[in-house]
Amino acid sequence: MRDVAVIGVGMTQFGELWEQSYRDLFVEAAVAAMRDAGVEKIDSMYVGCMSSGLFVGQEHVGSLLADYLGVAPIPALRVESACASGGAAIRQAYMEVASGMADVVLAGGVEKMTDVDGGMATYALATAADAEYEGFHGATFPGLYAMIAHAHMQKFKTTSEMLAHVAVKNHANGSLNPYAQFPAKITVEQVLGSTMVADPLHILDCSPVTDGASAVIIAPVELAQKLGKPAIRIIGTGMATDTIALHSRKDITRLNAVEVATKKALEMAKLKIEDINFAEVHDCFTIAELVVLEAMGVYKRGHAGPATVEGETARDGKFPVNPSGGLKSKGHPVGATGVAQIVEIVKQLRGEAEEGRQIKGVKRGLAQNMGGSGGSSVVTILEGE
Amino acid sequence: MRDVAVIGVGMTQFGELWEQSYRDLFVEAAVAAMRDAGVEKIDSMYVGCMSSGLFVGQEHVGSLLADYLGVAPIPALRVESACASGGAAIRQAYMEVASGMADVVLAGGVEKMTDVDGGMATYALATAADAEYEGFHGATFPGLYAMIAHAHMQKFKTTSEMLAHVAVKNHANGSLNPYAQFPAKITVEQVLGSTMVADPLHILDCSPVTDGASAVIIAPVELAQKLGKPAIRIIGTGMATDTIALHSRKDITRLNAVEVATKKALEMAKLKIEDINFAEVHDCFTIAELVVLEAMGVYKRGHAGPATVEGETARDGKFPVNPSGGLKSKGHPVGATGVAQIVEIVKQLRGEAEEGRQIKGVKRGLAQNMGGSGGSSVVTILEGE
Fold this sequence. Notes:
Strand content of chain A: 15-25%
Radius of gyration of chain A: 19 Å
Mean pLDDT of chain A: 97
Low-confidence stretches of chain A: none
Oligomer: homodimer
């Protein structure tokens, strides 16, 4: 397999974007990534999208978006693994370039979530859980993650304050990100005083419903060199699954898909987690960031909460997590999220993060993207020049 | 890239399967394919599925089906390109094995379409067209293909009788296929006398709404040899897109995605269309079989209809088409269709087609799977031992 790099990145503003349609959003991000890479032609593309059928009444979006991007007749395929769809698009694009099947591949993600009412958005998101069991019994995603939070609190004495610190840290980062949906700085008191959504998760423990798109261009390392672009190499990729339903797991505070995907990506990169400088992780809820960091082996189980309170995961901490603002502050247009994580890591490794957000001296970053309540996860490791 | 073969195949009965759920269907087909291959373990899987969100209120089906198949934590990904989703699953599995990322990969497809009312099924299928233009103006798939049929009739003097002969031939084949949804033999008079759905397409010109699943096991050729299985090699794959909307095309009687995908697959296999012995093609409507055969270069434009009447595409003709019965008689569970085409080709190339259906002396078969009204197409070429 060939060495592969990300040579261009682009994304739209994340937010409630009433004036832009599903196809507008994708094309804007894709054109930005192509311009950034300096390529006018792509050989193939993947689109991460969770539920265009339920959100905008449109399937067949690979073909639709290739058409609107003006790149037909190239192959264009939608991939779906719920909220890990974007990470999966990155992985398939990596595979296509590494195998030699294609040279310049676009991996993008898009979701337009605000054109439906709130009940429909909650229903669409709940289809990432087990519809016949969890869904039929009325479980929604805040409810499922609230159960994980309660179990974690009971087992490890995790507190609501610790969860609040995750949100505060991610909003502090997001406040410096011009693409973030909710760039406001917040305090622990504000999180704890905000409306309860599903005990113990307040509304400020939850990532928002968002419109947005993101895209990257993936190519062989030699092409990056030929184009004179910094080659941010993909040195590891891992994908794994777990039971789709929480009730089938022995311990709901453990995310086995994240453990396995991280292990595989690290093995492929011939690295240990200690060799990674920073990460973008899937903080769909504040509790998720903690259980993910523990599953990845960054912290022992039960230790991620106290470490967050100590500031270890802040931008200037030992292991910065979600310098982009994460799903929490930047926003979570489901299919776009996994690709936007790669956009952030590439910017950081190029030293091109916006003013104040750049982490100094980083060489390797990891993106962890999650589907549902951990039913799937994709981990990607990138290395700068 | 390594040489790759299909080493196992399986499918469920196609039909209106009230007693089997979405997950039951997939697991039945997947287990059949694994047994046929003689493998107890797979490294990765792809699921072709068009619209589980609209048909069964479930996304994240890669994870769901890996869980129910008992193979988690392996990577499992849903791919979607409308009715070409199954073909896309085959293509991604091929890429993963050819690249060396994995050894034993399952490519499956499933759709459960009969648990909704007819209006919802028509709506869900229409999301394969351009929802904002064709969909909003009320165009359904029978309507879109009826426009193609009218244009073809005007341009090439194609007749309703010619279309009827496609249906009659495919039902004659399907009558010998124990997995077919509608195995009844029919006559030209019956087709022409059946209810008009969208002029000039009668109900017997249309493929049905179907529940079903199919699966194949893809592995390196050496593994097939080690397991003592016939290695049916994948020697060519091509995928292409076109405008998603019919109204954006210069000539709606031409399927450019099929032309390009066929050309790419043949180039990869270093073959000409004349080197192929038979094909399974996407006869979602009778007119589709004719325009596909013309786009593939089997016949000059306007010649596929008369050739069908002459019996050239019959099981004992010069170029047998849809020996399985095709979508028309076997049924069309959208996501499963592209994989079921491969199941048929493998059976034929192994000499294992059911009594009466086996075509003699075939060495190479081609599967053509189509998304929407030709917005995407996947072509796969297989070679027997």
